[in-house]
Specification:
Beta-Lactamase; Alpha-Beta Plaits; TIM Barrel; 3 domains; eight-stranded mixed β-barrel; 21 helices
Length: 543
């Protein structure tokens, strides 16, 4: 008698399933067979080893995974969705991909693949190895995801202030320890959904989804305050600051690259305004940056086209009334823009590093022109703090003297306190090398910084130049007059000349003479002039 077709089909399915199970027993890939009631009926040897179960557990799938310490639930495939992929994590931190395929009679076959090594490698590729924070790639990916969801997002771009000097003076191990501490402090203020990253060097970023401007403002202020607190590392008390640029999506852009560029512009403004503060992006910042970049391009052309020239302002000895020297001042007359103020282009030249090449041109030109004058008066040349970071500075000065034939005793190099602040010991060492060449060294803008007196202890300057702000304030401000008097007496007691800058009236001249200054410079004494006019003036030898 023939069996019903349904019975025959069922028996064939059972036979096929049995053969399938037999083949799976020895398979190296972990496999589970789950019936349509979600009960695990079979686990091959590899699955037993991975999950610590028997070959025929006969327990619910969720129970089996719970016993194995699995984090994450498995959604089984069905007739509608015949294939599903799920990733789970075992209690020993292994990561496993579970691929489920629906079986014709109901239930599913689950194939388990240990992908821990690949996941760890991917995680390492998206993490900063020093701090453990997200890296730049991971941050951009997270930001793109937030933007795609349509949520409001804040990007805070964070840069440490004074980190380089700490790294240079205390060494990279201390610098690295400091970066890790900064990362910890940033993590302490981050919200649950925030992403904190180290972008490289001493630059960090924090991305906050669902951002509200006032909350972000409080967060930025908190970051500036927290990072600015003292650190104790390897026996050193360390102080750094943080400058923060903030931009908001969708108001400031809806693209990750645009948002980071705008945050960078806001960070630049925070630094320009004194550092250790935060600033939100404003549209005019972009226009100002474009203007700055245009000047940078023109500066590069100016070097090639020789658009720079020098003028010389006389310095007078108050005891003899004689012109004893000149200060070389840089001027730039652009063919399209016309005369451009040094206050506008010098900061850009310093930020871009162009000041090193420009400064070398100034030094060589000033030495060559001064060597042609009939009287051996001194020539003062300003040196930027950036030039002191160039290890070839002493060699450049030596070369300028040799090619011009100028007596080294006639060259006076002016240095501001900002050059000393970055790395005092290295700068003082360079100054000693220059002094060994018989070159005179002056401290410019004395009194405008925080540690001027301590620098006089570190290096015996030949001259102190009193900042013009004190000279101009003497008529109306008792404190300004007292500062001029104190500096003049200090110079006299230390055997250092004192030059009062910015003397523009007869009254100011009388005042600085009365306070004991030895030299003066300013429009009342003489305006900046060409090299030929300076040569003519020294032949008269008096003012």
């Amino acid at each position: 008698m023939l069996e019903p077709l349904a019975v025959t089909a069922n028996r064939q399915e059972q036979t096929a399933a049995a053969s399938y199970v037999t083949a799976l027993v020895e398979q190296a890939t972990p496999v589970l067979l789950v019936n349509k009631g979600a009960t695990v009926e079979f686990a091959n040897r590899a699955a037993c080893t991975m999950l610590g179960c028997s070959a025929a557990p006969l327990v619910m799938l969720d129970e089996l995974f719970a016993a194995a310490g699995v984090y994450g639930r498995i959604s089984l495939p069905d007739g509608t969705t015949p294939e599903k992929m799920t990733q789970i994590r075992l209690s020993d931190c292994r990561v496993v991909n579970v691929e489920g395929r629906h079986l014709p009679g109901g239930g599913a076959i689950l194939t388990l693949d240990d992908v821990s090594a690949f996941v760890r490698e991917a995680e390492r590729a998206r993490a900063d190895p020093l701090t453990g924070l997200a890296n730049r790639a991971a941050l951009h990916a997270a930001l793109s995801g937030f933007l795609a969801s349509g949520t409001a997002v804040a990007v805070l771009y964070i840069d440490l202030d004074r980190f380089k000097s700490i790294n240079d003076t205390l060494g990279h191990p201390v610098g690295d320890a400091l970066l890790r501490k900064v990362a910890e402090r940033l993590g302490s203020v981050a919200g649950q959904n925030d992403v904190v990253a180290r972008l490289g060097g001493d630059e960090f970023a924090l991305v906050r989804p669902d951002a509200v401007r006032e909350e972000v403002k409080s967060l930025a202020a908190r970051i500036v305050d927290l990072i600015g607190r003292a650190y104790v590392l390897e026996g050193h008390m360390i102080n750094v600051g943080a400058s923060v640029g903030v931009t908001l999506a969708p108001f400031d852009g809806n693209d990750s690259d645009v948002l980071f560029r705008n945050a960078d512009l806001a960070l630049y403004r925070a630094k320009a305004e004194g550092r250790s503060r935060f600033r939100f992006f404003e549209p005019e910042m972009d226009l100002q940056m474009q203007a700055r970049r245009a000047i940078e391009l023109d500066l590069r052309r100016a070097l090639a086209l020789k658009e720079f020239n020098l003028v010389y302002q006389p310095q007078v000895d108050l005891a003899t009334h004689e012109v004893v020297g000149f200060e070389a001042l840089l001027r730039w007359d652009n063919e399209k823009r016309g005369p451009i103020s040094p206050a506008e282009f010098i900061p850009i030249a310093e930020e871009t590093g162009l000041i090193v090449s420009i400064g070398e041109w100034v030094l060589r030109t000033a030495c060559a022109e001064a060597a042609s004058w009939g009287k051996p008066v001194s020539i003062a040349v300003n040196l930027s703090a950036i030039q002191f970071q160039d290890r070839s500075l002493v060699r450049t000065v030596t070369s300028a003297l040799a090619h011009s034939g100028l007596d080294p005793g006639r060259l006076e190099l002016e240095i501001t306190e900002s050059a000393l602040m970055s790395d005092t010991e290295a700068v003082v060492s360079t100054l000693r090398s220059l002094r060994n060449l018989s070159i005179r060294i002056s401290m410019d803008d004395f009194g405008t910084g925080y540690s001027s007196l301590s620098y006089l202890q570190k290096f015996p300057f030949d001259k102190i130049k009193i900042d013009q702000s004190f000279v101009r304030g003497m008529a109306d401000n008792v404190e300004a007059g007292a500062i001029v008097r104190a500096v003049a007496r200090l110079g006299s007691s230390l055997g250092i000349e004192t030059t009062a800058e910015g003397v523009e009236t007869q009254e100011q001249l009388a005042a600085v003479r009365a306070e004991g200054c030895s030299h003066v410079q300013g429009y009342f004494i003489g305006r900046p002039m060409s090299s030929s006019d300076a040569a003519a003036l020294v032949t008269r030898n008096a003012v």
